[in-house]
Design brief:
By secondary structure, the chain is an alpha+beta fold. Helix content is about 20%, strand content about 30%. Bound molecules: zinc ion (4 copies).
């Protein structure tokens, strides 16, 4: 049961539309197709109702494979090929065939997201023989570039800027002189919490 309006049963075209995959016997491309399902109102034993969707009971029809254009025999009814989805899938397969893939995590350039950072892989970074996504390149840099941390400054590697960035600093309280670690954005706090509360 689809619930478009929260808490209520919805019977709109969007909620009734579903997709399924029909593989091409010639090129193995998985064609995605869209179908608007039939709906009927159902009431359960407790008396609450909702729409139930079923695939239309109509004969299927052959169609042209989105990739190779050959005829695909098909027995299931659908309304249309999901051209947008098929196009995106085809472009991703092309990118894989052209080697636009991160050698470490397999993320595909222009299609996938780099792990851990909410950024699409728009660029691959060459390290020796390998092409890496930004996230894996960040792993490589974090292992390779020396960590500039010292006794009073802690750095963290930022996988978005691909740099070591100051994260925590050790500073003395201006009143009691006690040393304590501060997050870099809290450097303005000159007094330790004990002295701050004491004023
Ligand atoms: Zn809806
Ligand atoms: Zn095909
Ligand atoms: Zn990667
Ligand atoms: Zn203090």
């Amino acid at each position: 049961m689809a619930n478009h309006d929260f808490g209520g049963a919805c019977n709109c075209q969007e909620c009734r539309t579903t997709s399924f995959v029909i593989p091409c016997p010639h090129c193995a491309f998985e064609n995605s197709v869209l179908v608007v399902q039939d709906s009927h109102w159902e009431t359960d034993r407790k008396g609450s109702g909702g729409y139930s969707f079923t695939l239309p009971n109509k004969p299927g029809h052959d169609f042209e494979c989105f990739k190779c254009g050959n005829r695909v025999p098909n027995t299931l009814y659908f309304d249309e090929i999901d051209a947008e989805w098929c196009k995106t899938k085809l472009e991703r397969q092309d990118a894989i065939e052209r080697g636009q893939v991160c050698a470490r995590c397999g993320a595909v350039k222009g299609h996938d997201y780099a792990k851990g950072i909410i950024e699409k892989v728009e660029q691959l970074y060459t390290v020796g023989e390998e092409n890496l996504c930004k996230s894996c390149y960040g792993d490589y840099l974090a292992e390779t570039l020396p960590d500039p941390s010292d006794a009073d400054n802690r750095y963290a590697f930022n996988r978005r800027t691909l740099k070591w960035e100051l994260a925590r600093v050790k500073r003395a309280c201006s009143v009691c002189g006690k040393m304590r670690w501060l997050n870099v954005e809290n450097q303005w706090k000159t007094k330790c919490s004990k002295c701050y509360k004491g004023t």
